[in-house]
UniProtKB/TrEMBL annotation:
GO cellular component: endoplasmic reticulum membrane; plasma membrane
Keywords, alphabetical: Membrane, Transmembrane, Transmembrane helix
InterPro entries linked: EamA_dom, EmrE-like
Protein name, UniProt field: Solute carrier family 35 member G1
GO biological process: calcium ion export across plasma membrane; regulation of cytosolic calcium ion concentration
Membrane-crossing segments per the record: 55-75, 81-102, 109-129, 149-167, 179-198, 210-230, 237-257
Species in which this protein is naturally found: Camelus dromedarius (Dromedary)
Domain of life per record: Eukaryota
Membrane topology listed for this record: Multi-pass membrane protein
Length: 294
């Protein structure tokens, strides 16, 4: 009777094992792998984001808002074309910061493009100690123009740092969460600065109020598309595509303000656009394999 008992025990043991694990092989590992690969969205992390990414989200919001404030000041202090062109030295700063913080390659060509950008900015600023006082022909006071130039240049630096931060976070953070930090930080910064300067007031004209609403909506839409683009593509290439703003800036300045840019501005614009285009050339070799693998 022992053989029968051993056989029955063996059958019961096998049956018990099947009852405990009746899933196909490898099925028990799939949920764990899915949990690891799944990107945490705002529904899982709330409005503060993943713990490991909160410092980057905060920096993205604060620095991005400062960059936008500097850009608006530059538009007020100098011409639309000059401010826009100077801000598009951003790809050069992006390449430098990406090399420092993301360990991306910085070649001698990038150094050459940096020199092109500096040349373009000098042609736009036209400092009197280089061009002489007679070469500085502009309607606004030169000191105000200089302040607007430095504000536009500072915007390019802060925007480049913001692009690198977004690239650092990648797809680990939902892009709408990044926009949320940008909006909240911008609101706090603007309200603080307005109260500090005593400039808190609403425009009296209804058309100006409409323009403010349009600025907010268009600016938010631009940030949404920019954030989504930087998550799925390299920082330098995204910064390159933004140089199309230079073309629109010249067109809008002529159409809406009847302000014809000077030849100095045109020459400086060509230098800056050329450097921005060249800064993105190394990324083109990586573009097609990236698309094929995706």
């Amino acid at each position: 009777m022992r053989p029968l008992d051993n056989s029955g025990a063996a059958e019961q043991l096998a049956s018990g094992l099947q009852m405990k694990d009746n899933r196909p092989p490898g099925a028990s590992q799939q949920p764990a792998a899915a949990e690891v690969a799944e990107t945490p969205g705002p529904g899982r992390t709330g409005f503060i984001g993943p713990k490991s990414q909160r410092i980057f989200l905060l920096l993205r919001g604060v620095l991005g808002s400062i960059a936008m404030i500097l850009l608006y000041y530059a538009f007020q202090a100098t011409s639309l074309a000059d401010a826009t062109v100077i801000t598009f030295s951003c790809p050069v700063f992006t390449s430098i910061f990406a090399c420092i913080f993301l360990k991306e390659k910085y070649s001698p060509w990038d150094a050459l493009f940096t020199a092109f950008t500096i040349t373009g900015v000098i042609l736009i600023v036209r400092p009197p100690f280089l061009f002489g006082s007679s070469a500085v022909e502009m309607e606004e006071d030169y000191s105000v123009h200089l302040k607007g130039t430095f504000a536009a240049l500072a915007h390019a630096v802060f925007a480049a740092v913001t692009l690198v931060i977004l690239r650092k976070m990648g797809k680990s953070v939902d892009y709408m969460l990044s926009i949320w930090y940008y909006v909240v930080a911008g609101l706090i910064e603007c309200v603080t600065v307005l109260f500090a300067l005593g400039e808190w007031s609403l425009p009296y004209c209804g058309l100006d109020r409409l323009f403010l609403i349009l600025i907010g909506l268009c600016g938010l839409g631009g940030q949404v598309f920019l954030t989504k683009a930087i998550q799925i593509e390299k920082a330098g290439l995204v910064a390159l595509m933004k140089t199309m703003d230079v073309v629109f800036a010249f067109i809008f300045q002529v159409i809406f303000f009847n302000n014809i840019p000077s030849w100095w501005t045109v020459g400086g614009s060509l230098c800056v656009v050329a450097s921005s285009t060249g800064a993105a050339i190394p990324y083109k070799s990586d573009l097609y394999p990236h698309i094929l693998h995706d």
